[in-house]
């Protein structure tokens, strides 16, 4: 089995390792500036960027088929999760016309077990669409509900291509757990 290593995330240096002149920048970033920039607008007025259909990427009812699934949990059904579960996955996205529109490579890690026995995981991925868009997603997944057939929704951000900087979400619901999903991707520019 190949190594199951999630991609490295952004890490801000500790204040002690930054030049003194950059300490206020770090403080601003960690105190909520990024959150403020990411907050969606409340009821945007007509005529704004978000109201223009050219500023939205709306992909609904995609079929997501497994290309590779590598997990340290030998139960492919997902019915026997553990706190040690880690997986590396690759899927292709197929549109309503039957053509492949892109691929994704992702990583999942079980984080904790709720008092009711359910499991919560973190899933992140990079989606590469054939139109040149690259989308990074990530978020908490209720793994127990997902395995039972419920839809999961995680944040999505365009990191390259025509929708670079656009924000939105990605949804997926298992048709066959770990093998096939019904998926939606929505991005919009603000």
Polypeptide structure, described:
The protein has an eight-stranded antiparallel beta barrel. The protein is mostly beta strands. The relative contact order is 0.17. It has two domains: 13-42, no CATH class; 49-188, Allene oxide cyclase-like (AOC barrel-like, Beta Barrel). It has helices spanning 23-38, 143-147; strands at 56-71, 86-94, 100-113, 119-129, 134-142, 152-160, 167-176, 180-188. GO terms for molecular function: isomerase activity. This is Allene oxide cyclase barrel-like domain-containing protein. Residues 67-187 form the Allene oxide cyclase barrel-like domain. It holds the Pfam family AOC_like.
Which terms would index this structure?
2 helices; mainly beta; isomerase activity; 11% helix; AOC barrel-like; 8-stranded antiparallel beta barrel; single chain; disordered N terminus; 190 residues; 2 domains
Question: Helix and strand layout, with pairings?
Answer:
Layout: H1 23-38, E1 56-71, E2 86-94, E3 100-113, E4 119-129, E5 134-142, H2 143-147, E6 152-160, E7 167-176, E8 180-188
Antiparallel strand pairs: 1-2, 1-8, 2-3, 3-4, 4-5, 5-6, 6-7, 7-8
């Amino acid at each position: 089995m190949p190594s199951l290593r999630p991609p490295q995330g952004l890490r801000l240096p500790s204040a002690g390792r930054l030049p003194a002149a950059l300490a206020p920048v770090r403080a601003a970033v960690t105190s909520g500036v990024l959150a403020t920039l990411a907050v969606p607008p409340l009821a945007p007025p007509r005529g704004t960027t978000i109201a223009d259909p050219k500023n939205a990427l709306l992909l609904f009812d995609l079929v997501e088929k497994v290309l590779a699934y590598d997990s340290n949990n030998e139960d492919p059904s997902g019915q026997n999760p553990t706190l040690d579960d880690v997986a590396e996955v690759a899927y292709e996205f197929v549109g309503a016309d039957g053509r492949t529109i892109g691929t994704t490579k992702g990583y999942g890690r079980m984080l904790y077990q709720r008092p009711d026995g359910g499991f919560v995981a973190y899933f992140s991925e990079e989606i590469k669409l054939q139109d040149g868009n690259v989308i990074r997603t990530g978020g908490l997944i209720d793994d127990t509900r997902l395995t039972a057939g419920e839809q999961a929704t995680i944040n999505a951000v365009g990191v390259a291509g025509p929708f670079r900087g656009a924000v939105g979400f990605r949804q997926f619901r298992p048709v066959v757990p770990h093998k096939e999903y019904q998926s939606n991707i929505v991005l919009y520019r603000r």
